[in-house]
RNA sequence: GGCCUCAUCGUCUAACGGUUAGGACACCACCCUUUCAAGGUGGUAACACGGGUUCGAUUCCCGUUGGGGCUACCA
């Protein structure tokens, strides 16, 4: 068998959604594993909704994810002549026919359908037209579409993921394959392209299952060999409904902006609807490629669990050397308005990287260390202070007093810890109750590196000033 | 409505007729840290329902129920 040829074929009518990204990833994993070729094809035949900006976003998203393609991007819109030729070939061989019905007539017929518009199926009235009647209309310049004559037979295939799926041709409509204006309809364009590109494996979303019998009929009418079809399940929102904008972030770019790193996203997406069959979860790219198989893909739709994605991202972050994410953190800090002035961020990153789940969160924690004056007092910090209650102010007073007695020369983690400890003991409160208010005052957050280390790094003057300011607000 | 499809903890999943139904996220408890996290240990939690087939069904078959997809001169 020759090496597999796969394709990912998004339409540039929106951003790259996680569902599409996962489909692309599965195609890529299979291609990598089998030594196959992955082709990127932009399906832009819907000119009204397609934009170059969307195309670019999709390309960027795939690149960010690490899903590389071997050929393309090809643009479907460029192959109009071939699509048209295929339609005309079907017309010549009697596998398709001209339909002169207008949209208005069809709409009226739909409405008049006994079971309502939903049960309507084209009645083939134009297929019954005599040759003379057809010639007459063509000569008169009457506009027409080309309809495919759906064969009345069983259409079935062995799906790489679902197993055998079969449809009855009689349940399918005579679909339009070429519009009045000579442009192709999706199902024709896809088949024409997949045949021309010699695609051997069509791995796409579940929502295409009902398109597949139509496309198979088209392959057969065109006399082309069938590829392997595999339909991957949908991705759902937390409410079990198809993932959409109202669920919040659905585009790959959204997660990039939130500080998810590509390796974590790739790992998470790969495990959504697929598993290596054992207990592995954190899997490097090479392991993913080695273990992947279409047959192990889940049949059922999966809920996109952002919390687990963030956990996984945190795992990747804490395993990464600080130097490898310094640049990304610097970019996030710039967004936060923190002056870098050529400072070495690595010590700060190392101090907090195991405490953050996203780059954004990591950057915020690095930021308070670099510039405590920007500590997120509001609204998160304010809420925390309120929540901590009256004991909070008392603890802060204690802290100011205790830290104030430390000589500048002894401003190091150990003496600082000792001072706080003494103060807590004297006041009869637990060390944690003495520490946490300082942490919140300095960072506006409940999580940070050890308080005494943080206090040491930030510096005496800044710490005392900061605590006084917060005390004033408490 | 019609056609298609799916069904294991709240979520992601393992199991390919015989298991105390395993792992992960989340949650809870404890340990570690004279502090938050991280980490470690343990715990709560699932085979949708009803019929078959079988010595034996989470697993195979049928049905019910409940999801999802499609049903355009969109893709």
Walk across the major sheet and give the strand order.
1-2-3
Whole-number average pLDDT? 89
* Number of separate strands: 12
- Which residue ranges are poorly predicted, with pLDDT under 50 across at least 5 consecutive positions? none
Describe the global form: elongated
Largest sheet: 3 strands, parallel
Helix/strand structural class:
mainly alpha
**Tally of contiguous helical segments:** 20
For the termini, the CA-CA separation is 74 Å
Helix content: 40-55%
Q: Taking Cα atoms only, what radius of gyration do you get, to the nearest Å? A: 31 Å
What does this 3D model show about the protein?
There is one protein chain. With 474 residues, the protein is mainly alpha-helical. The protein is built from 20 helices and 12 strands. The longest helix has 17 residues, at 18-34. The radius of gyration is 31 Å and the shape is elongated. The protein starts with a strand and ends with a helix. The protein binds one RNA strand of 75 nucleotides through α4, β7, β8, α6 and β12.
């Amino acid at each position: 068998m020759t090496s597999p040829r796969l394709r990912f074929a998004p339409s540039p009518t929106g951003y790259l959604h996680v569902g599409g990204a996962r489909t692309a990833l599965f195609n890529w994993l299979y291609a990598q594993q089998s030594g196959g070729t992955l082709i990127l094809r932009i399906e832009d035949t819907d000119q009204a909704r397609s934009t170059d900006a969307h195309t670019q976003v999709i390309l960027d998203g795939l690149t960010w994810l690490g899903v590389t393609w071997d050929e393309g991007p090809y643009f479907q819109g460029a192959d109009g002549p071939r699509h048209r030729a295929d339609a005309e070939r079907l017309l010549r061989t009697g596998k398709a026919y001209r339909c002169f019905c207008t949209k208005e007539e069809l709409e009226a017929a739909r409405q008049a359908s006994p079971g309502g518009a939903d049960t309507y199926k084209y009645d083939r009235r134009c297929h019954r037209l005599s040759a003379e009647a057809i010639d007459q209309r063509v000569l008169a310049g009457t506009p027409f579409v080309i309809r495919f004559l759906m064969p009345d037979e069983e259409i079935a295939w062995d799906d790489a993921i679902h197993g055998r799926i079969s449809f009855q041709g009689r349940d399918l409509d005579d679909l339009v394959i070429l519009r009045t204006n000579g442009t192709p309809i999706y199902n024709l364009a896809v088949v024409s392209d997949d045949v021309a590109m010699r695609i051997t494996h069509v791995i796409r979303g579940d929502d295409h299952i009902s398109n597949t019998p139509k496309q198979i009929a088209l392959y057969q009418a065109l006399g082309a060999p069938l590829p392997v079809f595999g339909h991957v399940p949908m991705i759902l929102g937390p409410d079990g409904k198809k993932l959409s904008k109202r669920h919040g972030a659905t585009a790959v770019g959204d997660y990039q902006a939130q500080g998810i790193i590509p390796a974590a996203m790739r790992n998470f997406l790969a495990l959504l609807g697929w598993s290596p069959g054992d207990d592995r979860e954190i899997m490097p790219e090479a392991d993913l490629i080695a273990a992947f198989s279409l047959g192990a893909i889940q049949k059922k739709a999966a809920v996109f669990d952002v919390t687990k994605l963030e956990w996984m991202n945190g795992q990747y972050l804490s395993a990464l050397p600080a130097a490898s994410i310094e640049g990304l953190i610097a970019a996030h800090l710039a967004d936060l308005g923190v002056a870098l002035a050529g400072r070495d961020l690595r010590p700060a990153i190392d101090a907090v990287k195991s405490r953050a789940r996203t780059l954004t969160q990591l950057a915020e924690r690095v930021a308070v260390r670099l510039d405590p004056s920007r500590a997120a007092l509001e609204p998160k910090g304010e809420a925390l202070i309120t929540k901590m209650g009256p004991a909070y102010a008392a603890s802060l007073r204690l802290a100011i007093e205790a830290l104030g007695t430390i000589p500048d020369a002894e401003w190091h983690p150990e003496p600082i810890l000792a001072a706080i400890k003494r103060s807590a003991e004297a006041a009869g409160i637990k060390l944690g109750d003495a520490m946490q208010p300082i942490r919140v005052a300095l960072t506006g957050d409940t999580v940070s590196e050890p308080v005494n280390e943080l206090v040491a790094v930030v510096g005496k003057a800044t710490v005392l000033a900061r605590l006084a300011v917060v005390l004033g607000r408490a």
